[in-house]
Amino acid sequence: MTSVYVLNGPNLNLLGLRRPEVYGTATLADVEDLCREEAGKLGLELEFLQSNHEGQLVDWVQEAGARVAAGECIGAVLNAGAYTHTSIALHDAIEGASLPVIEVHISNVYAREEFRHPSFISPVARGVVVGFGVRGYLLALQGLVDHAGRA
């Protein structure tokens, strides 16, 4: 079965606890359940991962890129958290691995602090979903499927 990765960066393990007025009350486990259900509807196997470590995210991006090249995966939904605004390493990994990525953010980063506006991920992403809460993950999965021509 073809797979899709959903990669989550730093502090997303604190969903439901950290700033619920910004990120809502859904936990990361709730997000995984939503994504697993949606992936199933789309005929995809889900690889749902979270790390607070940049290097681990880079490793998963490279792994997913290799699986795309092998025809085993359609790409990744990536919520890089704060690494969105700081990680040239993630930018380079996505580009180097030729990984189709949909960038997702739970909150509207453009309505928040200015330091959250620039993204190192957006220039190498196929699309960006911002400000739809955790349902943005579902939109990102659907967009990735559309991009892959599987819709």
TrEMBL record:
Enzyme's top EC category: lyase
Keyword Amino-acid biosynthesis applies: yes
Alphabetical list of Pfam families matching this protein: DHquinase_II (PF01220)
InterPro entries: DHquinase_II, DHquinase_II_sf
One GO BP annotation of this record: aromatic amino acid family biosynthetic process
Keywords assigned by UniProt, alphabetized: Amino-acid biosynthesis, Aromatic amino acid biosynthesis, Lyase
EC number: 4.2.1.10
Pathway(s) annotated for this protein in UniProt: Metabolic intermediate biosynthesis; chorismate biosynthesis; chorismate from D-erythrose 4-phosphate and phosphoenolpyruvate: step 3/7
Domain of life, per lineage: Bacteria
Catalytic reaction list: 3-dehydroquinate = 3-dehydroshikimate + H2O
Molecular functions per Gene Ontology: 3-dehydroquinate dehydratase activity
Site (Transition state stabilizer): R18
Binding positions (substrate): N79, H85, D92, I106, S107, R116
Active site, renumbered: Y23, H105
Complexes and interactors: Homododecamer.
Family: Belongs to the type-II 3-dehydroquinase family.
Entry function: Catalyzes a trans-dehydration via an enolate intermediate.
Name this protein carries in UniProt: 3-dehydroquinate dehydratase
